[in-house]
C-alpha cells in the first residue's frame, strides 16, 4: 500500500473557478517513509489575486510570479497528475481535499480535458474525530500541527510542504490511535470523498433536505447548488460577444423566487459571451 498526500495553490478563484499554479505531493510507503516529494509549478494563465481587505496579502506563495509564468500550463502536467492520483494500490489524502478536487474540476473544464476520477480521504476530519469526537471546530493545518506538537518550520502555502504537513498529522493520528491509515479511515467515518465524472461528493457533507412543493422554484437548498454549477459551467466560455465589457444585474428578490428562470437566463447569457 502507498499513500499520496497532495495540496494545491491557485492564482485566483474568480467566478468560483480555481486557476491552479502549483500541485504539491508526497508519496509515502506503508510505513510512512517518504518515497517522493515534489512541487509541480504551473503557469495559471490567469492573473494573481492574492490580496484581501486593506490590500494585504492573505496568501504568500513560495515562488515568484515570474517562475510561475515560465512554467508550462495545467494541460502539460495533466498526465502526471492523473498518474499520481489514480495509481493502483494507492490511498489519496489531503487536508480539506474537497476544495482541491474543486480546483482540479475547474481546470478540467477550462482546458477541456477529460475529468480524472479518484477517491480522497480528509485528514482534517480524521484529526477532529480522533481529538474532538464530541464537538469542537475543524482545525487549520497549522493549528492541527500546533495542537499535536508537530514541527511547523515548513513553508506554509508551499504545496509540497503542506502535503508533507498533512502526512505528519496523519502519522501522529496513527501513533495516537494505534491504527494504520486503513484502520483510521474505516473506524472514523465519514471522511471519504470522490471526484467522479466531474462531480464532487463527500460523505461528510450533510445532504440538504428536499424542497417542499411551494419552494421548488426558489434559489435555495439543493436548487442553489444546481444554480452555482450552471453558473460555473457558463463561465467556461472563451467568447465575449455582444456582452463584452457589460454587466447585467437581476434583483435579489427575482433571483430568489425564480430558480428555473434564472437557470435558463444564465445559460442563454453564457451562449452569447456572458461570464
What key phrases describe this protein's structure?
single chain, 275 residues, 7 strands, alpha/beta, 7-stranded mixed sheet, 16% strand
Indicate the overall shape. globular
SS elements, strand count: 7
- Proportion of helical residues: 25-40%
Low-confidence stretches: 52-57
Query: Structural class, from helix and strand content?
Result: alpha/beta
Which strands sit side by side, in order, in the main sheet?
3-2-1-4-5-6-7
H/E element string?
A: EEEHHEHEHHHHEEHHH
First-residue to last-residue Cα separation: 44 Å
Strand composition percent: 15-25%
Q: What integer value in Å does the Rg equal? A: 20 Å
The DSSP helix count reads 10
Average pLDDT score = 89
Task: Please describe the biggest sheet, giving its number of strands, its sense, and whether it closes into a barrel.
Answer: 7 strands, mixed
Characterise this structure.
This protein is α/β, with parallel strands linked by helices. 39% of the residues lie in helices and 16% in strands. The chain is built from ten helices and seven strands. The protein has helices at residues 65-70, 74-86, 97-110, 123-131, 141-147, 159-177, 181-187, 221-234, 252-257, 259-271; strands at residues 2-10, 20-28, 34-41, 90-94, 118-122, 192-196, 199-202. Helix 4 (123-131) packs parallel to helix 6, helix 5 (141-147) packs parallel to helix 6 and helix 8 packs parallel to helix 10. The chain is globular and about 55 Å long. It starts with a strand and ends with a helix.
Amino acid at each position: 500500500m502507498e499513500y499520496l498526500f497532495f495540496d494545491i495553490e491557485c492564482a485566483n478563484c474568480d467566478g468560483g473557478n480555481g486557476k491552479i499554479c502549483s500541485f504539491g505531493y508526497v508519496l509515502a510507503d506503508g510505513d510512512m517513509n517518504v518515497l517522493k516529494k515534489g512541487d509541480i509549478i504551473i503557469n495559471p494563465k490567469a492573473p494573481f489575486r492574492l490580496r484581501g481587505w486593506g490590500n494585504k496579502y492573505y496568501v504568500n506563495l513560495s515562488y515568484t510570479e515570474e517562475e510561475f509564468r515560465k512554467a508550462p500550463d495545467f494541460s502539460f502536467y495533466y498526465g502526471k497528475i492523473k498518474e499520481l492520483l489514480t495509481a493502483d494500490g494507492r490511498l489519496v489524502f489531503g487536508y480539506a481535499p474537497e476544495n482541491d478536487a474543486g480546483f482540479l474540476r475547474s481546470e478540467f473544464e477550462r482546458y477541456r480535458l477529460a475529468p480524472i476520477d479518484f477517491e480522497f480521504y480528509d485528514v482534517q476530519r480524521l484529526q477532529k474525530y480522533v481529538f474532538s469526537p464530541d464537538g469542537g471546530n475543524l482545525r487549520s493545518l497549522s493549528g492541527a500541527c500546533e495542537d499535536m506538537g508537530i514541527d511547523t518550520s515548513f513553508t506554509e502555502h508551499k504545496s509540497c510542504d503542506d502535503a508533507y504537513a498533512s502526512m505528519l498529522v496523519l502519522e501522529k493520528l496513527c501513533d495516537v490511535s494505534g491504527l494504520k491509515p486503513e484502520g483510521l479511515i474505516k473506524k472514523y467515518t465519514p471522511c471519504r470523498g470522490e471526484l467522479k465524472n466531474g462531480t464532487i461528493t463527500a460523505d461528510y457533507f450533510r445532504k440538504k433536505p428536499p424542497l417542499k412543493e411551494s419552494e421548488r422554484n426558489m434559489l435555495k437548498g439543493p436548487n442553489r447548488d444546481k444554480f452555482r454549477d450552471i453558473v460555473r459551467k457558463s463561465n467556461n466560455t472563451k467568447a465575449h460577444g455582444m456582452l463584452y465589457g457589460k454587466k447585467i444585474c437581476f434583483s435579489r428578490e427575482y433571483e430568489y423566487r425564480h430558480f428555473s428562470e434564472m437557470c435558463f437566463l444564465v445559460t442563454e447569457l453564457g451562449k452569447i459571451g456572458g461570464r
